[in-house]
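Inputs:
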Amino acid sequence: MSAPPEQVTITIDDRSVSVPKGTGLVESALQAGIEIPVFCYEPRLGPPLGACRMCLVEIEGLPKLQAACTLSAQDGMVVRTSATSAQAADGQEGVLEFILLNHPLDCPDCDKGGECPLQDLTLRYGPGTSRMVVQKRTFDKPIPISPLIALDRERCILCYRCTRFSEQVAEDGQLVALNRGASSIIATFEDEPYRAHFSGNVIDLCPVGALTSTVYRFRARPWEIQNVPTVCAMCPVGCNVWATTREGKVARVLARNHPEVDGGWLCDKGRFAHDHLRAADRLTEPIRRIRMRGLVAVPWEEALDAADEGLRAAGASVCVAFSGGETVEQADALSRLVRQGLGADVALLPDDPDPALDAFRAPLAAIRSANVCLVVGDEPVLERAPIVDLWLRAARRGGAEVVTVGPAGAIAAPPGSAAAICAALAASSPPEELRELARDLREADRVALVWSGDDDTGGRHLAGLAAALELGEGSGAYFLPRTPNGRGVAQAWRAAGDGRGIDPSGDEALGALIVSGDEALRDTRVVALADRARFVLTTAMFMNEAAGQSHVILPGTGYLERDGTVVNLEGRSQRLRRTVEPPGWDELAFFAQLARRFGVDVDPWTRAGVDELAALPARSGTAPVVAAPAARGPQRAAGAGGDFELVRYRALFSGAAVERVPQLAFQRPAAEVELPGGDASRLHIATGERVVLRSGEVSRELAARVNRRLAPGVARVAEEHADGLADSVRIEKA
Amino acid sequence: MQNPFEGAKGFAVTLGQIFRKPITQQYPEYKRPVYPRFRGRHRLHRHENGLEKCVGCSLCAAACPSDCIRVVAAENSPGNRVSPGERYARIYEINLSRCIFCGYCELACPFDAITLGNEFELSEYSRDDLIYTKDMLLRPPTKTMPVADRDLYDTPDPVWKRES
């Protein structure tokens, strides 16, 4: 560990404060209980810019006012803010008058009105009246820079927060400042829509109403809303969010900074997908299949009776399919109903993170300070756990070595080889391609291992590698589950009984199948099981073909309608709070009642579930035992002719929720297949050309996109465009 | 001992009143003019070009101490322009059974879109009928109330208006 930084003492407004050397003046003042107002300053966006000049202070010994945000505390510095210095107060007033020269006074129209830093600071530091007599600058407004974000250039004060976010945090570089001086404007390149996974954050960052959400547009005003602190359960990261409600409906979702988990950022799925709760095709009543009448809406009590009857007839031949989005409490109720009440022991878990991983827990923020980050697996981290990608980018900016090993990695590896790579790196003599990486991993102080593969045994292999590297403080192994609460659901299932048996492969008839949630309904394994089951009980928010085969369908709840605990990819238990009322009973209430009929007492209320689960960190020295698979070094798959190995990934913007938010439609993966550069030029395929993917009888026509990072012989397609295709496909021009 | 003439004095007052003109006003038949700044039922106003002055900013709802105003805003579109700004009030409701006629909404309104009129006959047979919608508030009142001479009672030009 490095020595604690040197302390310096500075005087701000006659108050003396001692801070570590290098602390910014704004933070130092805050420590002394003094506020220096800012617009453009945001430490999370990288180095300060000093664009807005709102933070002007007087510093003894310097002839002119200085921008406090760009200075750091020096020993003996004497700083006077506008509270004690007339010169600084005059300067700030001038700055505000200058900012307001072209800022329209349409606060009653503006969505930011009431929670606007410019309004607040003008009231506190600004002039009472304007001396501007000529016409203000006007632009067309609002300009939709994407279907999600509306840009109002008149209101923009050019603080460059949004462009800095785009360039230095998300690194998508799509939002730029055009032109110079008074004609500077914020724009996207060539007026293309701002299509990026984190675009919504610029709305939060904007200190005025220049960038506003089109989903939230004019839906509520700040004094009419309630903000509920909860956790996003759309992906395994578990970002902390504020859910804003008005009149009992979710109006928007905002990031709630948890410095260890999300750093205050939130992806667009978490931010905008909440509108699916109000989708027109949402199920609100239980549905029962009645002979000769088909699916009929029935009261809850009747659904309970029907479920009771169906499960009793099935005896112990029951399988439960989890979707991984349930809260720990829901999964616990269902697990105990099935294992203790019905005596069955078969579940389809969406994820199975190995308990051995608990020994290598670390907060996600530890990735940023790692020296070497290793990402293994076929799936892009950005699509599976988007915030992890931001942490990896932060690590790379900080000088860390970020190595991806996989079909699209810096070190190419065939699809599905992630487990073998972990084993190879853990071995004493790794193969040639991995030797340098293995040395770096062993020599580095702090290591972050990220698993983004599709292999159920991945947790075990990742833990094995972590144990072999003897990860210390500041290092962590992060297994990215496919589903938001995959880790918690697996924990709950394990805790509810002993042993686990998963056998979805057989073809004998099944007594009953319980399908929990929409994600499970989309699983082809579950659909196959449903065909074999005599009784299918489904909870789902939305109807689909698979749900239509069920005998009893219960309207499901969304994560914003649940109270409970979710466990994120770090193994951190977080509390989900009910933000809005669900349309009917929630799953926990239903399954608790059902369990009671089978003699199992399940608490239908969520009570301090968080305390029962281990909190971070839980480092114990027990090294997991790993049976290493045959170390298969990364080999280059030779794409003979037009034969490709197909890699599917689950796009972030997919699933039942995203499909029901029209504004998110443009974020969904395009009907494209990514092809490696070498193979594409050999087959004379360029980006944008139509190609046909064939495997057996199935063929799909997609647009080609050449991705030079892809390993030869590998083609990558989003799951929703790869329906029915086998793992090996033949690609040719359409 | 009481003075025997006391009672007679009292009756003399009564007798004297009998020959005076009564000051009782027969209310439903005769409506006494209200003061010009009397605060009665709200009205929403339009610009001369027919657009609504209200932009649905909800400042009236924020100022309302009895929380009787509900505003739901929506965005103007070229095909449906309701107000001059970007937003307009899609729903504007005042629950007059809850309103205390304090006039804060009028003070809060940045566009002088809402004012309190002088109508005070607001009784209804059902509470639901006391929820006034935007259409009802925009329409000119059906009953007109006599108003006392403005010059007698009202300040012609408020001080703050004269100085600005």
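Chain B is about 25% helix and 15% strand. Flag for discussion at group meeting.
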